[in-house]
Amino acid sequence: MAASRFVDQLNEQIGHEFAAAQQYVANAVFYDARTLPRLAAFFYAQALEERNHALMMVRYLLDSGATPSIPGVAAPVTVFDDLVAPVSIALEQEKRVTEQISALTAAARELGDFQSEGFMGWFLKEQTEEVATMSDLLAVASRNAEDPENIEEYLAREHPGTEQPDPTAPPVAGGAV
To answer: Which of 20, 60, 166, 175 has the fewest CB atoms within 10 Å of its CB?
Structure first.
């Protein structure tokens, strides 16, 4: 069974992951309303990914004999000053989640909870990718704030939506994809 302090922190992280999913839905809706389908699709997909991260954590707790809790989340930001703001919020969110995941991993190590530390390894790798992706998208969006079609073209080229599921990813509660 996972260490109780780790379980408490992971349950808190489940809330952070669901909050991230909600923020990404808000970002997607913002772009969808402005007829920017690639940006909208990108953030809808990110929302599903964050939801699945939460459900991976739920599955881990269930498999470990611990009780998952599903905390409520604060409302996402839904009003943005410009086309760049949602991406900027996304990058800050990914940086914050990286700190949270690192703290969870450190807690597991400190507690000698090697199974939980191993579980967190995938999330560390994932956060490196997420921060890099959002950093690149923010650079492109900032350069092309006045020409959003260039941002759309970048996403079509660099993130066509054909990525295959990561076979090393932890299982998701409910078998969700």
So the answer is: 175
The answer to whether 130 touches 20, Cβ cutoff 8 Å, is: no
Helix (H, G, I), strand (E, B) or coil at 174: helix
Please state whether the predicted TM-score (pTM) of the whole model is above 0.85.
yes
**Token code pair at residue 168:** 């090393």
Is the Cβ–Cβ distance between 24 and 83 less than 8 Å?
Answer: no
Distance CA 56, CA 72 (A): 18
Q: Which of 58, 59, 56, 61 shows the shortest CA–CA distance to 70?
A: 58
Closest CA to 9 of 140, 90, 105: 105
Q: Domain residues of the chain, as ranges? A: 4-163
Residue with tokens 């599955």: 59
Model pLDDT for residues 151-162, shown as the tens digit of each residue = 999 999 999 888
**Helical H runs in the chain?**
4-33, 37-63, 85-110, 114-143, 148-158
- In the CATH hierarchy, which fold is given to the domain comprising 4-163? Ferritin (1.20.1260)
